Amino acid sequence: MAKEPRPRECQPCTACCDGWLQIRVNGVPVYPGRPCPHSTGTGCNDYANRPVDPCVHFICGWRREGSPLPEWMKPNNSKVIVLFNQSRWRGFPVDVAVPVGKRIPPRALKWLQQFAEKNNRMLLYSEQIVENGAYTNQQSVSAFGPPEFQQEMAERAARGETFV
Length: 164
Ligand code: SF4
Ligand code: SF4
Description:
- The chain is of the alpha+beta class.
- The chain folds into two domains: 10-58, no CATH class; 59-159, no CATH class.
- It is 21% helix and 27% strand.
- It contains four helices and six strands.
- It has a four-stranded mixed β-sheet with strand order 3-4-5-6.
- β1 (23-25) and β2 form a beta hairpin.
- The radius of gyration is 16 Å and the shape is globular.
- The N and C termini lie far apart (42 Å).
- The model has no long low-confidence stretch (mean pLDDT 95).
- One iron/sulfur cluster binds next to loops.
């Protein structure tokens, strides 16, 4: 009988604790360049008391049950956090990919683009904007999909909409 796959574990990844997703932890803002004060870089030093929202509830696309992302796409290794099904565009699911660092490495981005193409999914992916060697807490967002999708996302971004 085939063995049940083991649930995926976070450790030693702390990508979502380290500011690459903009969150608030017990009221403290966490953003690029400002990790959660409880992150050790390989775990959480107050795991038993971590807040329910966002810490207990949040599961990235790699960790979720039945994830299509391969093992090597674990965020601490691939340097990208994937959030599936963040919205829909003309009936197609839209996934969002956020870099762990300045930008998504080419191997991971290529995998995501091929996955989107094969499965009729839209992809929005971001890059951190750095000024004078420091993160600005702003991102530029690119759209991968049909030209109409790219154009619509560019227009929405120009109007000041944020996607990640
Ligand atoms: S990014 Fe994913 S794997 Fe990494 S700590 Fe967060 S939920 Fe766990
Ligand atoms: S409290 Fe712990 S689990 Fe929550 S963001 Fe901070 S380090 Fe991560």
